[in-house]
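Example 3.2
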Amino acid sequence: MHRPMKGHTKTVYNLIKLDHLNEVSDGETVDAALLRDRKIVSKPNKGRKLYKVVGGDELTVKNLIVKAHAFTESARAAIEANGGQCMLMSRTRPIPLEEAEADKELLAADRLARWLKLRDLKAKKTRVSV
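Structure, written as tokens:
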């Protein structure tokens, strides 16, 4: 019996255009929640909770810190050319991707330590019972 083949799943994003970023103040930290609160972008469509910043018109705002799940090359270049920063966010948690990766490593180390401790306990138990 054959298992059905799993196809490629395309990641679908809500888009944030550079025009939307022009509507915030210089030096501000911008994410999708801020843009939604100010009614610059609409709420997520069809349960899509991932946001991608895409290029378009010229970015006029300076020194922005933009938090999103993905950036196009042109959007990243425009933001960084105006002295801003692009922060990739975790797809599953509302924290920057770097922090999520660090947490993942800590959890893996903790899991390994618990496994080693359990293995030692089992080894002691088998020595005592023999």
